[in-house]
Structure formats: C-alpha cells, structure tokens
Amino acid sequence: MISMTRYLFAALIVICTSPATAIDFNTHTHRDGQTFLTWEEDSLIDGESYLIFRSDSEITAQDLPTMAPLFEVREGSSIAALERTLSPPSYTNFFVKDIRDGGTALPDNEGLLVWTTDRDQTTWYAIVEKVDGEARFADVTDQSITPAIAEFRARPKPLLVRESVGDDDRKARVWLQYMDLNNWNPTFPRMETTGEGMNATVEKIPGGYAFSYMVLDPIDYDPNRSYPVLMDFHGLGQRYFVDPAFIFDWPVIYIKYDDPMNSFWYGWSETHDYATGDIPPTGPIVNYTEARILRTLYDTIDDPLYHADEERVVATGHSMGGTAVVSLALRYPEIFAAAYASQPFTNPREQFTPGPVCQEPVPLGANNIERVYGAFDSQLPIKNITPYLGETRLDPAAANYQFNGMPVWDWANQIDNVSGIFSDRELPALMLDFGSRDCMVSFDTQSLDFLEALERQKVYYSAVTIPASHGWQNFAGVSPIVGPDDDFPGSPAGCDYSLIRCIEVSRGDSFPSFENNSGNATFDPDLDNRNYYNKNISWAAPWFEGQYNGAVIDGPYQWQATLFAIAPDQPAPGTTVAADVTPRRVKLFRWPPGTEVAWTAISLLNGEMLVEDQAVVDTSGLVTAAQVPITPGGTILTLQVDIPSTWLLD
C-alpha cells in the first residue's frame, strides 16, 4: 500500500483551541466499492485543509488526536481544475450522484473524498479541519463522525457526468472515474503556462485521482448488433475533449482518452511528491495511466449501453498517442486485434541522439519525458499494477508483473523489447507511419530500427515513411486487411481501404506476416519519396463472405491463406511479388520445433502449381514458407503437416 503520509502529512498535528467553524459531513455513502464523503468547507478562511480519519471500530472525538489520518484533502477539492483548463470545459466540478442519473455537480465550497475499499467491512470516518498546520480537534461534533458504513469490495463504476446528442443523433457521453487513492500518487501536476517571454508564469495544477474520458456511439447505432471499439490517444499537450469536426464518422464505439498531465500514457513515480519538483529522484514508476486505460476499456465493454465486441478492439494515436499505441500493443497483445501508431516514440531515451536527419532533435524530452520517468541516467524501476483487484479477466497486467523492477527507460525501449522481453508474444497487426523530416520524434532513432525489429521477429506490420515533419498522416500506413473496402466483392458497404473505418479484424483471427517482401522499400530508403512496407499484399478475410477462396484456415494439420498483390495506395491489382510468409496468431496449427511442414503455392485463377517446398518449425515455434510468389490474381498458400499413419484409425 502506498503511504501518502511520507509527503502529504509532514506537518506536526497539534490541538488548536481557537474558535472555528464546525466541519460536518454532508454525504457519507458507499457504492460499487467506493465510499463518497462530502462536507461544507470553512468559508471564513482560505488555505485550510481537511484531515480524514478512518477506522474499523467506532470513532469518538477523544480518539482522534491519537489516530493517524487516512488522507489530507486540500481546500477546493470539488473543483475539477484540470477540466477547467479545457475550452469549453466538459464540466467544472466533480460529481457524487448515482451512475445513471447524470447527477448534479458539487458546489465550489463542498469538500470531497472518494475512498476505494479493498475488503468487506464496517467502517467509520471522521473529519477534522487543519489550519496553519494545526488540527482543530476541539471543534469536532457528532456530525463530524459518520455512523457505521457497510463497505463492500466491488468493481468501481464510472459516473456519467455529461451526455450530448449530435446532429447525426449519436450520443457522446463523458464519464468520470475515481481511482483507488490507496494505490495512487495524486501529486503529479500538470504544468500550465500563462503569458509569454519574461512575463510567462507556470502554475502546477494537481493531477488528482479523478479522470474523464468520452465515449461516442457508432454512426447509425443499432442496439441489436455489436460494434468494434476504437481507442484513440491524443498527443502531447492535447486533451480528450473532441471538437465535432474531428470525431470519426465511423461504425465503431469511439473512446477518446485523456492524459492531462502528459504521462506518456504509462504512469509516474509512486514515491515522489511532484509538488516539490518536476524530475522524480525515486521510483518505482507505476503504470497508473495504463491501469486507468484498461479500466476504462473494460467498463465500456461491459456496459450494456454500447454492445461492444471484445474481439475487435483497435488502438490508434499520433505522437505521444502513437507511443501509447505501440506500448499497449506490446504489453497487452491479448486485448487488441490491431493497432495504428502515427509517428510514435519507440525508444525515447535515444530521442536526442543526433543522426543524418535530426542533427539537433527538438528538445522535447528533458522537459516532458524526464519529469515523468526520472532522469535518463537514473533508470528508476517500474511497477505494474492491475485496474481491478481479484478479477482474473480484468488483470491483463499480470503478464507484466515479471518485469517489475526493470529500469523504466529499458521498459520504454520497444525496439529492443520486440525481440527481447516480448519475443514470445503473439502481437496484433501493427500499422505505422513516420515522417522522414520529423525531429519532434526523431526519425533517426524512432522509426526504421523499429520496423527492422518487427521484420526480424516476424511480426505482421504495414508502414509508410513520408517526406514530412511531425504531423498526422491520416492513416497513411494502414494495412489493406484491417478493414475491408467496398471495391472488393463481399465487403460491407461504405468501407474505405485508406482508413480503418470498418474494423472487421478480430483478435481471434490468424493472419500471415511477411518478411523479405520484394515489393518493400529497403531499410535505407530514399527519404525524399514515400516508402512502403507490406502495403502491397492483402489476403482473404472472413468478411469477404466466401469470395477469394474463403478466409484463413487454421486447422490442427493445415494452415491456408489466399494472398493478393495489390497497389500500395489503393485496392487495385499490383504486380507479382515474392515474400517469406509466416502464420501468426495461430490457435490450432501449432507444432513443436523441428517439425517438418510441406507447403504449396497455387494460382487462384487457374490452379497452376507455382511452388512446392518444405519448411521446418523453428525454435520459437514459427514456420515460414520462403519466397512465396504472390500474384494480383491470387495465390493459395497451404502449409501441411502429414498425419502419422499410427494416428489413423483402421
């Protein structure tokens, strides 16, 4: 358990006998694993705080001076300071009302604490005002102590705080989630700069433990069908509030996340008080933000409002948001069907290493990255926690507990981690774009080395490098297979090859990865042109409804896919290419290393045998058909393991 008293309760508590306003609880209720406490603040003074005490036995006024406080709450704790920095704000004060009634925001002078319990028990709370470092125990009344509260360990639910209806009748809902203060450091501040030049001032707004996100209904929402989930992560300095002009007009459940303190979508130090300094000298660096993201996702999936398809979850984001996408896809591959990252950090520690393109990279890191994770040379350890306690399905972080204690900058180095600590993971389909003139996220250190690592590890990826700086490239690197296009027979209507508008790929689908693709650019390309990687090969997928020889077959003795050479920027026939093909995310076609596998490549158009050869399952359990000819008319690739005659029944 995190002991916030190390830096929140440093002042000596002494009894003050001067006159003061009695502080009594207005609300003391428990719901969904969380206890909500409110009180009217002292209007006669400024700068006071409030000590909250908690006990599993009845509290008396005489007990309080000998008790350690649970938490110290600053004045104005109902004010949603981070929300007020939005223009316009989604809301301005925090809420306490029930989840479904929309609720009413607390007034500015209403104090608030939300405590998450970790067990079933009966509990009492008390409140004492603290002024100038002195706790006013003499002013405690009977109303300053709650009656017994029955607390229950449960999954906390978010509060609905705003609902709006757009011109297309879609509902956008803003949800507020209170995190577990018992396992949270709320001191991480957001830096707000006002003014310019010599007149600029910087204000630290406490990050707190209450966070918001928006969920948008799919276009033409039909409650009788299920929808994929698109998780969208913003870039550095941006926020979750979405201008209607930037809301995707897609048939997906769209979640817009918020990282208001720019934690680079992972977390921050458990032990550092960020109010005293920006660069933490101590760790561990805890995945607070990731835990919140995972909680948000599962709350949305389980909410009957949305009819989400858990098998079709896709993440997307640009810049810092692209960094989130890459990291989440590698750390939690079992969640995602696919992931699109635009100009992400893949090894942020090397951001400032000069190269041919970025001889002087933009100094983005010292001010932003190090203040989150600590100095580059400190190598503070990491700690992964889960979004919920005791729910196995909702504990995707469990697979990452083994890495707790790993230096944070190594943990953030996804170039090495692809073929290192994550080498045995079946990753989702990864799609990326990079600007070859980008020095905000240095092209020299963050781009081609990552693509090469994916290729070596036989991870399916598609990508493009564009002679551009650090700007959103509108899904330029999208895979031709993540969503269908209505130019292909059998595809759903209204789908667009150049986007991921129709997300049909499922995390349960097996798919091929491509290596040594003769149609790819090299990893030392001409940076004045667009360079494509694996955007020239498509394959028949489930949504083609029987077209193109059907979808991928993943059987115990046979794996089969029908592959097509296409033009990189449009769903049109391309030119014949050759590529190594490796089945990935297989469920049934799994054989031990050393197993011999026969494979054939046959023309879909005329049944001609193009190649017949052998392969062997490698030490990683992967089998690769080498240099398969892939034609515009279609190549049926079949990998087959002979059934031993001793297994056959007479």
Write a short abstract of this structure:
By secondary structure, the protein is mainly β. It is about 10% helix and about 30% strand. It is elongated.
What descriptive keywords fit this protein?
650 residues, mainly beta, ten-stranded mixed beta sheet, six-stranded antiparallel beta sheet, 10 helices, disordered N terminus
Count of alpha and pi helical runs: 10
Placed side by side, the strands forming the largest sheet appear as 9-10-13-15-14-18-19-21-22-24
Low-confidence stretches: 1-18
Largest sheet: 10 strands, mixed
Fraction of residues in helix: 10-25%
Word description of this protein:
This protein is mainly β and 650 residues long. The strands form 7 sheets. A 10-stranded mixed beta sheet has the order 9-10-13-15-14-18-19-21-22-24, covered by helices on one side. Strands 25, 26, 27, 29, 30 and 32 form a 6-stranded antiparallel beta sheet that branches. Strands 3, 4, 6, 7 and 8 form a 5-stranded antiparallel beta sheet that branches. The chain is elongated and about 95 Å long. The model is unreliable at 1-18 (pLDDT under 50).
Helices and strands in order:
Elements: H1 5-8, E1 25-31, E2 34-40, E3 49-55, E4 71-74, H2 81-84, E5 110-116, E6 121-131, E7 134-135, E8 149-151, E9 159-165, E10 171-178, E11 189-194, E12 201-206, E13 210-216, E14 227-233, E15 253-256, E16 268-269, E17 285-286, H3 288-302, E18 308-318, H4 320-331, E19 338-342, H5 365-368, H6 370-373, E20 382-383, H7 408-411, H8 414-418, E21 429-435, H9 443-446, H10 448-456, E22 461-466, E23 511-515, E24 531-533, E25 537-539, E26 553-554, E27 558-565, E28 577-584, E29 596-603, E30 609-616, E31 625-630, E32 635-640
Parallel strand pairs: 14-15, 14-18, 17-20, 18-19, 19-21, 21-22
Antiparallel strand pairs: 1-2, 2-5, 3-4, 3-6, 6-7, 6-8, 9-10, 10-13, 11-12, 13-15, 16-17, 22-24, 23-28, 25-27, 26-27, 27-32, 28-31, 29-30, 29-32
